[in-house]
Amino acid sequence: MNFTSGNETLTPAVNYRDSFVMAVGKNVIVVVLGMTINYINATMIHTFNRHHIFKLNPRYILFIHLVFNDLIQLTTSITLFVCTYTFHTIYVSLCCLLILPAVFTTQNTPLNLAFMAGECYIAVCIPLRYNYICTVKRTYTVIGIIWTMSSLSVLPDIFILLATEPLDFLHARVFCKRDSVFRSTYSLKKRDASHILFLVVVWITLFYTYFRILIVAKAANTDAKKARNTILLHGFQVLLCMITYVQPMLVTFLTYLFPGGLASILFALYVINQILPRFISPIVYGLRDSTFRKYFKRYLMCAINENNHVK
């Protein structure tokens, strides 16, 4: 990358542009998928807010926080995606405003899933202490811990940026991605270290809770088997999210296999990494949980019927 001030730009050496038809097609796919998932997520949040029974259950509180987190993440990441194709480069200051919520919420997802797996473990393996350990107050404390951990991972990048980059850099135009803005060696090393730490903690939590629940499930406990399947879905979600951490190596490998296909590779990884994990959240509770499903279907069908009536 070559940095120049003024009206000149800071752009990656790789050309990310597609043909006009391909660019429009990719943007339409991403926007339609994002709007569909966000519509479902917004209906879930509405369902949660309308029924007090869900607000008293730590499981649903953690779930709806994940859904709300996904809604923010999808909105910001799709905005970045569209801006990238529309303007190709944007000012660093504006890019920071878009990147920070996207990175925050992306970091939150695996942490939230780890705590949800812990809640399943407590409910199945030590049910007699569940009401003592899993209270509403402690659940909101856990949500605060999730945001604090993400903040400690991301906010130092802002201070490193201000300390290491010239002021002209803030007025430069960049291809808006994290490594283009927070390009200091310190930021890159800190990012890798935090990713490794988060992944190790999350995967240890998932493996431990899954195998402990698996032992209980052998007793043919229906709830335990359902919890085991839920942990598996959480693991699959985290696996998709993990692509973010290995994406540079994966892009290099796939580009070697498919020379000239960088734009398509990046698009496919974006859909797999940023959109598909957010599609799983509604399945875990919106469709699999009978209590939530009963209310959720009512509001979803009412909204669809109202739209058809308006038409």
Features:
311 residues, mainly alpha, 2% strand, disordered N terminus
Summarize the structure.
This protein has helices spanning about 20-50, 50-55, 60-85, 90-125, 130-135, 135-155, 155-165, 180, 185-215, 220-240, 245-255, 260-285, 290-310; strands at about 10, 90, 175. It has about 300 residues and is mainly α. The termini are far apart.
Question: How is the secondary structure organized here?
Answer:
Layout: E1 9-10, H1 20-50, H2 52-55, H3 58-87, E2 90-91, H4 92-125, H5 130-133, H6 136-154, H7 156-164, E3 173-174, H8 178-181, H9 185-217, H10 222-241, H11 243-257, H12 262-287, H13 290-310
Parallel strand pairs: 1-3
Antiparallel strand pairs: 2-3
What does this protein look like?
The chain has 311 residues and is an all-alpha fold. The chain is 80% helix and 2% strand. It is built from 13 helices and three strands; from the N terminus they run E-H-H-H-E-H-H-H-H-E-H-H-H-H-H-H. The protein has a three-stranded mixed β-sheet with strand order 1-3-2. Helix 4 packs antiparallel against helix 6. The chain is globular and about 60 Å long. The N terminus is likely disordered.
